[in-house]
Amino acid sequence: MGAMTRLKGVCLALAIAACARAVVGAATKEQADAISSALRARDFDTAAELARSALKASPNDAQLWTLQGIALSRKGDGGNALVAFEHALKLSPDYIAALEGAAQLYYQAGKRDAVPLLNRLLQLRPDDPTSHAMLAVLEYREGNCEAAVPHFEHAGKLLDAELDALHAFGTCLVRMKQLEGAARVFQRTVALHPNDARERRLLAAIQLMAEKAHDALETMSPLLEDPAADSETLALASSAYEETGDTPRAVSTLRRAILLDPNNANLYLEFANISFAHQSFQVGIDVVNDGIGLQPQAAALYVARGVLLVQLAEYDKAEADFEKATELDPGQSLSAAAQGLAAVEANDLDRALATIEKKLAIKPNDPLLLYVRADILSQKGAEPGTPEFATALSSAKKAVSLKPSLAAARGVLARLYLQAGQTQPAIEQCRMALAGDPSDQAAVYRLIQALRKSGDKAEIPDLLKRLALLREQTAKKERERYRYKLIAGDRAPSP
Amino acid sequence: MRVTRRTFVQLTLASAIPAAGRRVLAQGVATHAAKPLARPAPSGRPFHARFVDVAAAAGLRAPIVYGAVEGHQYILETIGCGCAFIDYDNDGWMDIFLLGGTRLEGDPADATNRLYKNNRDGTFTDVTAGAGLRRAGWASGVCVGDYNNDGFDDIFCTYFGQNRLYRNNGDGTFTDVTKAAGLSNPQSRWGAGCSFLDYNRDGHLDLFVSNYVNFSFEHAPVPGENTNCNWKGVPVVCGPRGLPPGTHSLYRNNGDGTFTDVSREAGISGATKCYGMTVVAADLDEDGWPDIYVACDSTPSLLFMNNHDGTFREEGVLRGVALSEDGGEQAGMGVGIGDYDLDGHLDLFKTHFADDANGLYHNDGTGNFDDVTRAARIGVETRYVGWGAAMMDLDNDGQPDLFMVTGNVYPDVERKLSNYPNKTPRVVFRNLGNRTFEELQEEAGPGVAAAHNSRGCAFGDFDNDGDVDVLIVNLNEPPSLLRNDLAGPGHWLKVKLEGVKSNRSAIGARVIVRSGGSRQVQAVLSQSSFYSCNDPRLHFGLGSIAVANVEIHWPSGLHQTLTGVAANQLITVREGAGVVPNRGWNKA
What we know:
The structure holds two protein chains of two kinds. By secondary structure, chain A is an all-alpha fold. Chain A contains 27 helices and no strands. Chain B is mostly beta strands. Chain B is 6% helix and 35% strand. In chain B, strands 6, 7, 8, 9, 10, 11, 14 and 15 form an eight-stranded antiparallel sheet that branches. A four-stranded antiparallel sheet of chain B has the order 1-32-31-30. Chain B has a four-stranded antiparallel sheet with strand order 2-3-4-5. The termini of chain B are far apart. The chains are: A mainly alpha, B mainly beta. Chains A and B meet through helix 14, helix 16, helix 18, helix 20 and helix 22 of A and helix 1 of B.
């Protein structure tokens, strides 16, 4: 991340100041002052030479080694600077200026050697925002958001100067599913850059994920008032309108987006999504047809159209679309999964299984295909103790180990465990599914049954209430959603 | 869950194609959308029961008027009604009571409930008018019980409008005592299932009534008006989704011919979010107190567990009988109750809508259930809308089978979707003895394979020949009376109970027959199937075993055991006294 240049500058200034405040060791105050003056005057050659001379007389002076390190690092001699800092730390492990200097160099080199140094600095100065900021970034780079977030928080307003750092902070919160916290972070970026459309879109996207569609629309309102709003903004706004139940506006906004960017396949997918949600399958097919006309190589569009065709029980046409998608993009497994599931929908479980097995022979570690295989075997009535059941179980287990976020696979696995009388693993899978999606009603229900069977009933009353609430919320959303059906006139006109 | 562009296809796949059976959305009725299991090869075992429809020959020729023949406007016309085997004159021969409906434009001349007296020769005589039971209206369910303990079974009918309690006068006539008994509703309701039960064990039969939908002609939408008025894209009658659900009622018998509404204090009226249908009252957790199971349409079914103190707690979801195995709602209509695996515990069989498997729920003896639909191979059949049902030994091989009647609710759909015909056959699942079933149609006789639009059905032995016959409501047609021409060698035993300290009808009693190392339990019920009431003489198939022990758990709490009971007879057992002479039974 090239973002932290200002942090580097801050650290260096602090290091000089720290050295200036440090207790003078064997060197005289005059020697130290002279070196510091040279540094402040940016005469790094002189500073380095003065430090070298002073060190001949006082080789065990941590302050002198640190000043030399600072001078060398400013000269661009990071290697020798680091040696100097390390020498200082051997003499005085808690010498803040040396800790800062060494940490800074390791940080710039992207090395985690900075981490223990920064941790030591925080032990000495727990509220140092710069150390927190640097540690946050290092942990973020390692993908360790759980460790990064507390440091981002302690870095406080220091991050306001670093847009990328704020983005990293927000991204971590999203990964940790702390969406409201992420929204607050991105609100800071928007406050700092109110005219930056990208920042507004980022915040709006987070707000949508946090199911705060109205907030998302408010965030985007300055952009939407602009008649020249771009297709990305319009597409995001369309999603937000749909979430608020304003389907007519969602559709009209998406139509505008498609007109602006007719070659963007994703926009047709969005339209197909809305059509699906409102059970208006033919309208969705018609729009996707337009998209395919412009983007005939877009595999995803064929898969989308195939899914919609399945809803109309047009299985042969759907099959043709899935085959086309595979031909265009053999690496993706979605079309294979779709073919299998379409066969399931047509009540041909044997054909469904055969389709999936054929694809698994080519891609044996595809989590989606493994999950579909497990589900089909379960639907075929595989009984515990049979080879089919064992295959279903191992497929589901492998699917979740390859892709822990595949909630549907966890659902099948939980069901299989329950069937096999293995309540503890079933409970575990249900809990993991709920960690990914707290609104998964099937997972809540299975957890209730599994806990009842295990005799561990303490949680059950709360789970029952939760299930009842989820059912009410789902029913309400459905009522809202099914207020509207798309009709032929809602199609985006062909560009 | 919001679907992003990137995940559209992934997630719409998951919701487009039912995994273990997802909810099909945007229609008025819930269906689990389960895929049928592959049918295994036929077992080849002979099935000795053969059902033949003898209704016309028996004199049951009057059609059961119920709504328009086609072009339904409202859901009221589609649900239909139940029927009962009832020995109203105590001669030991099952008489027949068939409910009926009417039409939107007014009551046709032949629209009425009908009581048929058994002539004991395979025929019946319509005695409706003389009995005082002639009435036209939108009848729903019937439950039977001797609520005043005078030795004569009374009839309670639920209606859209006002329910009716008919007191049996003991002389072949009935009197409508609804108002006098305190059972009139202050306003019109849609009564659905019902059951007499002695919930407080005071020896008097109380009454539970489920209600379906809070319906009014003024406010009801019409076909196609919204997404709850469509089925697979075809405009159909609206509901039940989108219509306000009914609430349910419990009435305590005061012992003096009157009832008091105790719904609130008993904890019943709290269950407000379900479309109630068939009611079954039985002691499911074997603690000596009756519980109440209500099959609900498109909403979680209810299981009210008796707290022994005049109150109930609702635990359907917890106990695994409210939802599908994936926690989804199903259209629950009819309920069969019995012991399919001969472990001495009452299991449940619930009928569901088309594109869904009917549910078989195994009771572990504590009133907790496992959905064993898939394991039992019931899931091979998902084509039909299921209604009345029973778990009964149809061929006397000692293994209770499943019988179900079917019929579509949307008569106009078949013109556009030919794989959803209006009239569909009956279904028999014969028990293979290894906790699995095999579906039969033609093999079970022409009465099973015949296609009708059926609803309620009652099971009993109308010709007293030691097997189980079936009476079936067919909408806008005469009923079916399926005589079981059983040819096999299996033994059987019928048990009729007379309460003394318990209610006279012995409703709520559990009877366990132990024979040859197996044990089979049944309960005396006031309603089961779909809105219907079976012959109260419990029928046990014994297979090759010719003698059995009979254990009776009376509603009063008394346990009584009879040992060495010979097969192939009806025994009448009076509480505390033992076996007493049968009433009627033989052709004489």
